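We emphasize that the prediction below concerns an isolated chain of 233 residues; any contacts that depend on oligomerization or on bound cofactors are therefore not represented. The input was used exactly as deposited, without trimming of termini.
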Amino acid sequence: MFFFSNQRYRSLSLLKISILSIVSVLCVISLLTFYPLERICDPAEHLSWFCSWPDPQTTVCSWDDHFPTLTETSRTPQAYHNLFSSLPKRRSSFVFNNSTLSKCNESSIDLLIFVISKCSHGSIRQSIRRTWANLHLLHNHYKTLSIKLLFLVDNDSQSTQKILLENEYYQDIVQVINLPEQYEFVTQRESALYEFVIKRCQQTRFVFKTDDDIFINTFLLLSKVQSCEVLCR
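Result of the prediction step, given as a token string:
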């Protein structure tokens, strides 16, 4: 009886596999028949499977709207600024702590090093200031570049007083009050960082975003910024 059931189970499995194979072949044949490959990838045709932005009424768009030709002009910071400025505006959901809100008072900043850090990582931030983000050492080697260091931190009630004292001494803390410390909010941290740059630090030419658990070769970074003649002007 067991042998009979086992044979029957194998027969049903083979039948299912055969049916699925036949259905798959028929789907591929129908796809190639009604939507040939040259039609899907033809630059002269409209891309009906993707709507252009920001017009919600548009259902098709040209090939060049999605795959424009890159030029030196389109890669400049001004081009990116114009692109992001054209995006839909929304009301900010981030509340910055005015007591720990560092300001960009410089007339021009060549490189803004923005480090995302947890509120409780005070010792790590101190290590960063003394090592790869030592502004005094960097300014001595790159006297023509304006460099600024900021830390974006979340909100932790147990570290509030420490953050206030740290910012009073270093003046490099940007705290977001409504940003929890959990790792799941990493996207919100980056959004808050970019919002701060756009609204309060627009004179920045280059922004380098990193985390407090990464060691950066700052001299190599600054040499690239200094040699980037086309993008800097």
